Amino acid sequence: MQITGDMAGNGDLYIAGMDEGGGGFPHNDTNLIFKSTDGGASWTNTYTGSPFPGPGVCSSGYFAGMFSTNGCYWRHEGWGEPAAYNGIVHLVYSQHGAGSDPGDVYYIRSTDGGVTFGAPLLLNTDATTRPQWQANLSVSPAGTLLATWYDARESTDSDCQYGNPASPCYRMWSRKSNDNGLNWLPDDSLSDVVSPLPAQPDPGIQPTYAGDYDYGSAILTRHVTSWTDGRVAISGTSQQDAFTDRELVGFAVTNTDPACGSLITGTAPTQFVVNLSDAVVTNTVDATDFTVNGTPADNVSISNGDTTLTFTFNTSPAIQGSNTMHIPAGAFLRASDNQPVFEFLCDFRYGTTQLMVTDTDPPVGGTFTPPAPGTYDYLVNLNMAADPSSVQDSDLQLSGNTGATVTGHTLENGDTTIHFTLHMDFGGTLTASIAAGAITDQFGNPGAAFSGNYTVEGPTPCLWSSGPDLPFAGTRFVGVFFPGNGKFYAMGGRDVNNIEFTHPFEYDPGSNSWTTKAATYPDNHVNNMACSVLNDSGTDYIYCAGGSEFTGQTTSGHVFRYDPVADSITTVPSNWPPGDNGTLPGGFTVFNNKLYTLGGFDIPNGSGTNQIWEFTPNPAGWMLKGATLPFPLGYIPTTTIGNLIYTGGGVDITGGVLTDTNHAFIYDPGADSISITTDIPDATSNTRAVNFCNLMYVLGGNFNAPTNEVQIYDPVSGTWSVGTPFAIAGRNFAADTDGTNNIWKAGGYDSGLAIIASMEIFHCDVSPCGGPTPTPTATPTVTPTPTPSVTPTVTPPPPTPTPRPTPTPRPRPTPHPRPTP
Question: What is the pLDDT of residues 217-235, one digit of tens each?
C-alpha cells in the first residue's frame, strides 16, 4: 500500500492498495483506492478496479519475479504509486503485457476524487516484448506529472544476466504530463546509461530482492526520482546502488493567495496574488488572463522581478462555497525562453464565517453520567447550520477510553446541533474530536477542528466489604461456588470448641444471608477436605474427598457428594487412598471434570507428600499420576487456569513442624508433567488459590502469621503482583470465586488464631476480565527431582503475552507477631 496527499492542500489523503490474487506467477491483481477527508482518522474504499494479469515470468515464493535468472529474480507484484492534485487522482502500475511481454506500465486518472477512473493508458510505447515494471509517479504544485519506470526495451538479452557488468539490462524511462494527466508527452529515457542487472550479494537481504518502493516526489520547480542501478561493479559483479535524477517542471504557477484548497472567511476577496516559477514577459500579461468562477480580473500589476502577478477585481467574484481560479495554458510567456505558461486551475472556498463548535453537552471538562458501562447522549452545538449529508458517525473520533464508540447521530435545532449517541464500557477520561473539514456548512465549506476532554463516571472499583457472619464461627472449611444456583457453600470444618460441623452452610448472594442446610455429612472427618464441583451424568454435585477429625487426629479417605439443589448427601464408594493411611489432601482443583489432589500432610509420620492423584466421577475411581511435586508439601493453594494447574505456596512438613514456603509449580494434567515457575513473593499456606479473570489469586494464609495479603500470579507473563488486601487477616477460611465478579471468604483463624464467623466479599460491579484471553499451555517437561543443594530453575510458561487487567498495587500488609501454633 502507498499513501499520498492532495498537493492542492485540501487535506484529502489517498491510499493505493492492491489485491494480489494470492501472489506467485501467474496471478491477477486488482487496484483499490481508499480516501480520507479527516486527516486519516477514517477511510473509505472509494474504488475497486477490474482484475488484470500481474507482471512477471516466474514465481519467487509468494511473489512474481521479473527475470528467471538466479532462480527467479527481482520480485514484483505490479505495485505502483498514487498522486493527487486538486481532486484529480492518478495511479501508475504494472501489468503483464500481451503474449510473452513480462510487463507494461499503465496510468489511470480520476476526476471525482478517486471514485471512478478512466480507461488505462499504456505509458511505454515500445514495440518490444521486453519488460517495463515498478513505476513511480509524482505531481507538482503546478499540476505537472512525471511517471518513471524500469525499462528493458534496450536490452539485447532475452533474460538479463545476473550481476554481469557486460550484460546491459535496463534504463529508467519517464513520461510527463503538463496538464494534470489530461495529455502526455512522448515517453523518453531518464537515466543516462543502460544498467546491468545488479546482483543481491548481501547476506542480510532477501536474495531475490531488488529495487522496489522507488517513490517519485515533486517540489515547486522540479520532479525527483530514484532507482536501483547496477552500473558500478565490485570484484567483477554489478552491485545495487541508489541513483537519482530530476526533471524541471517548466513555466508554471507555484502558489497563490488565496491558496489552493484554502478557506477564506470575512470580507469577500477582491485581490488575488499569483506567484510564478520564473520571470514573465510583462507585455504578454493581461488582466483577463486570470478568472475566478469565469469572471476576468479588472486590473493586474507585476512585481518581485516580474515573478508575481496581482490581479484585482472591482467587485469580488467570490461566492460562498467553492470558487475556481483559472489561467489558461499559454496565457503569457516566460522571459528566458518565451515558453508558454502551463494551465493553472484550482479551487478555494469562501464563507462569511467558518463552521465551528460553540459548546457541547456535557460541557468540555464535564462528566458523562451515570457510571459506565452505558449509552450516553452527546450534543455538539454549532455556530451555523451544518450540511446534514456531511455528518457521519465516524466524524466524531473518541480516544482515551478503551472501546468507546459512536453508535448513531441525529441533527436537531435547524441542523445547528448534532446529537451523537455514545457507548462507553469503562470510566475514566474521554477525548472527543472532530477533524478540520470532517463536517461542512450548507455551502460545503469545511468546519474548524474541535477537541474536548471529558470524564466518564466509572463503576465502583473492585473492593472487599463485609458480608453477613456465618451461622457459627468455624475454621478448616472448604469454600465451593456452585454455578448451578449461583450460591456459595462452606463445606465441613469445625467450631470454636473444635467440634466438627454436621451440615453444609449456604450463602445466597441474592438475599445476602446464610442458611444451615438439612443434609448431614456421613461422618465427622470433615476438616481440611478437598471439595469441588464435578458433573455426573448431566448433574452437578459438590464432591468432597479426604479429611480429618480433631479429637483423635485421624484422617479418612471417604468421598461423598452433595447435591445443593436436592439438599442431599450421598457417599461415593471410592475412597481417596492416602486418606485411609493417615494423610490429608494438600492442594486440590478440577480440570476436565476430574478432581486433582497435589501433595498432602502425612500425619503419622509428620511429613509432607509429593503425590498427585486424579479422581473421575463416573465410573468413580482414583489414579495415581506419574508426575510428582518437586518438593513434598501440604496445604497448597491450588487452582486451574485454562489447561494447566497452578500452585503458589504450601507448607513444608518436617518432623511435624510446619514451615511456609515460596514454591510455585505448574502441573500439566494432559501431559502429566510438572515444572517450577516464579516463586510466590511471600511464603504462605493453609489457604485457597482461586482463578479470577484467568489470574491466580492466593488469599492471605500463612500458618504462623496469617495475613490479609492477596498475591496475584499472571500465567502468561509468569509474574506476581499484589492485589487489594482484605480487612481481616486469616487462614483456613472457606473461599471460592465465580471467576469474574466475586470472591467470597468466611470464617477461619484470624491473625490471633481465634476462630471467627466473619465474612468478606470481593466484588466488582463490572468484571475486570474483559474479552477472552488465550488459554495458557505448557510444553511437557521432565519432572524435576528435588536435590537439596540445587536451586530450582524458574520456568515461566510459554504462551505469548497478551494484555490483561492488572490489579492496582497496594502496600504490603504489616507482618503480624508470630503466634504460638
Answer: 988 788 999 999 999 999 9
The CATH superfamily label for domain 463-763 reads Kelch-type beta propeller (2.120.10.80)
Poorest-confidence range of 343-357, 424-438, 560-574, 775-789?
Answer: 775-789
State how far the alpha carbon of 802 is from the alpha carbons of 217, 645, 717, 797, in Å. Answer: 41, 20, 9, 13
pLDDT value of residue 549? 97
Mean predicted confidence (pLDDT) in 633-660: 98
- One fold for 253-351 and 361-456: yes
The b-or-e profile of 184-194 (16+ CB within 10 A means b, else e) is: beebeebbeeb
Q: Which of 114, 111, 143 is nearest to 36 (CA)?
A: 114
Categorize the per-residue pLDDT at 38 as very low, low, confident or very high, splitting at 50, 70 and 90.
confident
CB of 509 closer than 8 Å to CB of 742? yes
Per CATH, which fold does 253-351 belong to? Immunoglobulin-like (2.60.40)
Q: Is the dihedral of CA 127, 130, 134, 136 positive or negative?
A: negative
- 3-state DSSP assignment of residue 643: coil
Q: What is the pLDDT of residues 541-594, one digit of tens each?
A: 999 999 999 999 999 999 999 999 999 999 999 999 999 999 999 999 999 999
- pTM value is 0.53
Q: Nine-digit cell at 93?
A: 502500475
Q: What is the largest CA-CA distance in the chain?
A: 121
Separate counts of helices (H) and strands (E) for the chain: 0, 69
Closest of 464, 478, 443, 455 to residue 349, by C-alpha = 443
Q: Which of 460, 462, 466, 463 is nearest to 728 (CA)?
A: 466
CATH top class, domain 2-248: mainly beta
For 69, the grid coordinates are 535468472
246, HSE (Cβ side, Cα atoms, 13 Å): 10
The whole-angstrom distance between residue 721's C-alpha and the CA centroid of its chain comes to 24
Out of 2.60.260.20, 2.60.40.1220, 3.40.50.880, 2.30.40.10, the CATH code matching 361-456 is 2.60.40.1220
Which is it for strands 644-647 and 651-654: parallel, antiparallel or unpaired? unpaired
Other Cβ atoms less than 10 A from the Cβ of 322: the count is 14
**Rg, Å, the chain Cα set:** 39
Domain ranges of the chain: 2-248, 253-351, 361-456, 463-763
pLDDT on residue 10 = 80
Q: Per the structure block, which three cell numbers stand in for 605?
A: 509420620
- DSSP annotation of 287 reads G
